[in-house]
Task: structure prediction
Amino acid sequence: MNLYAALGYPLFAVAATELLLGFLLLRRDPGQDPVIRSVALISFFSAFYALFAGVAYVRASLGLSYDLFLSGCWIGWFAIPATLQFLYYMKGSKRFAGLVGWGLYPVWLGIYGLCLFTDQIEAGAVSLIPFVDRVGLYENPARLFGGLLLLWCVFEMWQVRRRLFGTRRAQFSYFLAGLLLYAVAAVVGANILQLFGGFGFDPALASYFSILWIGPTFYAINRFRLFDIKLVISNAVAAVSIFAVLGAIHIGVFRLFRPAVGSTPAVLISLLLLGLLIFATPLSAWVDRVVRRLILRGKYDYQQVLRDSTQAMISILNLDELLEYIVTVIRKNLKVERVCLFTRGDSNIYCLRHGVGVADDGVQDFTLQDGAINWVKKTGHTLIREEQERTRNPDKKRSLSQELNSIGADLVIPMFYKGRMKGALTLGHRHNRQPYVRSDIELLEALAAQAAVALENARLYEQASRDGLTGLYHHAYFKVRLREEVERATRYGHPLSLLMIDIDGFKSINDQHGHPAGDQVLKQIALVLQEGARLGDLVARYGGDEFAVLLPETDSQTASDVADRLRAQVEKDKTAGQQVTISVGVASTKTASESLELVAQADEALYQAKSQGKNRVALTA
Result:
């Protein structure tokens, strides 16, 4: 291999890598994000720059003409408008980015046409090593124009990189640094040396410097989920791996059976075996899991998390179970030390409703304060503490930072439903102390949107399941839960107890003080029962002045103790300014195997308590 070939063939690998990056970016987000689209264009133009340079040097090694491909290398200049557009999109100047595209692409298209079809710019090279050029009439002005644009790119890159902070800085720092080095190398190699140096350096070889931005870009993709295309890479590698495994099996089976049965039967046997492997074994799924484990390295699958959480949130109607699920799925996938879910109360105060990692700090009674609430309501976006700490207003910075520090929050994600903020999620540090990047925040915002809808559905379901006067579960809901709990207790052999409660002398209260006083007594006793019940117990209004308490995982003796404690609390409480007592009947699945039988036994025990003098607890005989 001569020197021409040694320089040419590696450029094919450079071009292939840049083409791969471009296709992966478009596969990740097909034309929707202008930042991703402009980076994909940089990749494609740089790829063809390297490809044409590689072809030119390989043809030179074979003694063939290479002038046309050397002229084709001028396609690399199209990366300049793509780069400028990317930088202005990053700065939020979409209008100026559009003007750059409309202004510069036609100019470079005209220059490229002159390169390919005339000798006014690229007249051909006398030799490649050392490089001796036949300079066209407008070549130096074109290079000078390109050099000035590159200097503009360098300046804008420096400005953008200085302005980045928070998650965007973590993602784009390496990418921009690599692109900056590539631009500087192009300024020197394709401009300064050609215009003023005469050192015999072929500007087409500046395509080698694209490694300076491709390497950092893939590192940022791997380290900080830049553009979030690792999953696309994983899927592609998984598909290729499965194809390679099946191909190897096909070749092996074919060679094994061909000597004995001939070529055609051997092919049929091999295809039959492949069909069995694909449809009757978990081979494909196993290969896919192995590839994902190697490439993603424990990082969550964005789409899979959303699919799973959507299905789960649709099916969970119990509010407490839903809150537990939302917090758990976030903590598990993002490896977060502290997750809190705040919901809006009746007085528009956002109180901590559920959380993990907060017990040791005693923040169970914390509320989300006005600073964070007003910010996320006004913007509709996630509040990131790291970015807020760099705000230009020091008073706001200090206030918000103190507020977020008080609840140990790095992020505040609002939960909106039909334009109204129903709650907020707050997240603390990650276990590995890595920053939250764009894909993390996109996932959290998607989960928060799902959670807001699910919480509203669960709230409406709870409202429909509760008694309007007392706020306890009503009779119909109680019957459904009782049947479920009895079936569960019977299946697993776990104890289950039921308390039937009646207010002593309730009719006389209504007769003497009126029905409003009776309603107040019902509400107050419901409150005492709800506060006195254990976590996991179900308190319901059974009807009239009767209440029921369902006690899962509880035998009759423990249930009797719970009942007596509730009875004593009611007696102690001065209900609606009156001395009110209750009688309680206790039954358990030890003597009842069906829900109706359990209710009948508890009613019988309640009757015994009433007949024995009221204000007491009686157990099923």
